Amino acid sequence: MTTRRLGATDLLVSPLGLGLAALGRPGYINLGHAADLNHNYDIEMMEQHTHQLLDAAWAQGVRYFDVARSYGRAEPFLGSWLKSRRISPNTVTIGSKWGYTYTANWQVEADKHEIKDHSLPVLQRQWQESQANLNSFLNIYQIHSATLDSGVLENEPVLLALARLKQFGIAIGLSLSGPQQGEVLKRAMDIEIDGQRLFDTVQATWNVLEPSAGSTLQLAADQGLGVIVKEALANGRLTSRNDNPAFAAKRAVLETQARRLETTIDALALAAVLAQPWVGVVLSGAATIDQLTANLKALHVAWDDQAAAALAALVEPPEVYWQTRSALDWN
Ligand SMILES: NC(=O)c1ccc[n+]([C@@H]2O[C@H](COP(=O)([O-])OP(=O)(O)OC[C@H]3O[C@@H](n4cnc5c(N)ncnc54)[C@H](OP(=O)(O)O)[C@@H]3O)[C@@H](O)[C@H]2O)c1
Questions:
Q1: Ligand 1 mean position to 235 CA, how many Å?
Q2: Fold for domain 8-324?
Q3: Which of 31, 59, 135, 255 is deepest in the core (most CB within 10 A)?
Q4: How far is the CA of 14 from the centre of ligand 1 (A)?
Q5: Dist. CA 193 → ligand 1 center (Å)
């Protein structure tokens, strides 16, 4: 995989990156998470499993990795891998996020898996924690799931603290979630500190079921923001694992196109994202090496207008998509 610059930053990324949300903790919402981890939550085993996935991704050219403070031990697992493999900081790009605190206590089921708090004290604490785990490897620090109602985009002390990090060479980003991704992004793009735009990158959900943020992501890319796409497989709903009868008609469309293009559903859905002109890097959320290998085949899918037209019929109203997502079971 060749690397390219992420937006107007100097950071080099591979077109496909790897997110560690499914690897750093026992519980997650992706459909078959417990099965992927073989129900084995021993910390050392999980660290080894994560390292094996990172080795496989590195060998296949993946050069962007995404973590967050709330992904259990994802940051320390990534940090120990970078150190043990003697990776040089200028050969890889790493993004993390602050704003959610992990509270599941290494359990699959918990009353609360993570607590959202976008206040200055949380930024200050989590920045220190991220630094301890990733130090000079950390390139992008993102507000985790910024929303209009969290008030974070109006919180001047937080915005000034982020601007200070930017002065030290950290790219500042935000991730988005929910049906108002486009609105939040437009608000974020207007934020300037001392005449300079604050945000360098945006991480958003875009997939063939929920493409509603696409036009605003194009605007963001036009203005030089690096665009990182997450949940390209709708948390596993756009894979062969999704045998929900209510999805059968959509799955048939995906299978027809996948067969025609001699690929799998997951690679087809990722290829749909890679085909967007505004994309900087698309995250694979693979939890096993087999999934990663299948996901990376997206780079070789001969995406065409026929596939684009067929998959356009799969779009869900954003409210329906996000309701379905919030009903996914932690497992
Ligand atoms: N708000 C935020 O900032 C935010 C939110 C979400 C994600 N993210 C980032 O985005 C990354 C990707 O998100 P995601 O994990 O939700 O991504 P996703 O790509 O939508 O889903 C990944 C899941 O799809 C399934 N899968 C992938 N390939 C498969 C295959 N070949 N066969 C069967 N199943 C397959 C696996 O789930 P199962 O095997 O469990 O079914 C895998 O965990 C995360 O790791 C994280 O870094 C950020």
A1: 5
A2: TIM Barrel (3.20.20)
A3: 31
A4: 18
A5: 34
pTM of the model: 0.98
- Widest distance between CA atoms in the chain: 54
Closest ligand 1 atom to residue 36 Cα is: 39
> Is residue 31 very low, low, confident or very high in pLDDT (cuts 50, 70, 90)?
confident
Question: Which of 23, 30, 70 is the pocket-test mutation for ligand 1 (most atoms within 8 Å of CB)?
Answer: 30
For residue 157, pLDDT over 90 is answered with: yes
Ligand 1 pocket by C-beta < 6 Å: which residues? 19-22, 30-33, 36, 66, 97, 144-145, 175, 177, 203, 230-236, 239-241, 266, 283, 285-287, 291, 294-295
Per residue in 160-199, pLDDT (tens digit) is 999 999 999 999 999 999 999 999 999 999 999 999 999 9
What mean pLDDT comes out for the span 108-118? 93
Rounded to whole angstroms, the Cα distance separating 256 from 314 reads: 13
Using the predicted structure, report yes or no on whether residue 145 has a pLDDT greater than 90.
Answer: yes
